[in-house]
Amino acid sequence: MKKFCRYLSPLLIAALMLGSLPVVAAPAPAGSDLITTQAALNAERGQADRERIQEILTRTDVQEQLVAQGVDPAEVEARVAALSDAEAAQMAEQLEQLPAGASAVGALFAVFVILLVTDILGLTNVFPFTR
């Protein structure tokens, strides 16, 4: 058994040492089509922006408004597909900033309720009718 361990130990040590060395990849050929990480991320972001725009445009209320304005929904889809990445990002950002129905009223109501509760608890002194 000792003789077996004498031969096996150096082999295991060599295997572990060689296994821990970094593998050097060969450089890509000059004619290969490589893209940078940033370009890949921008392409993904552009596709996500287009999908978000398409998601909004496929809603029934939006479709009804497009038809009421005399716009063909198929033409809108074709134009969205033809947008550049920068244009798609700008349009998606504008769509995200549009106010949703009654969001301002809901926010004002929430602020009122929070102030009312804190005034009742005695933490603030905003409303004179809570005393």
UniProtKB/TrEMBL annotation:
<keyword id="KW-1133">Transmembrane helix</keyword>
<keyword id="KW-0812">Transmembrane</keyword>
<feature type="signal peptide">
    <location>
        <begin position="1"/>
        <end position="25"/>
    </location>
</feature>
<dbReference type="Pfam" id="PF20332">
    <property type="entry name" value="DUF6627"/>
</dbReference>
<feature type="transmembrane region" description="Helical">
    <location>
        <begin position="104"/>
        <end position="127"/>
    </location>
</feature>
<keyword id="KW-0472">Membrane</keyword>
<protein>
    <submittedName>
        <fullName>PA2779 family protein</fullName>
    </submittedName>
</protein>
<keyword id="KW-0732">Signal</keyword>
<dbReference type="InterPro" id="IPR016924">
    <property type="entry name" value="UCP029543"/>
</dbReference>
<dbReference type="InterPro" id="IPR046735">
    <property type="entry name" value="PA2779-like"/>
</dbReference>
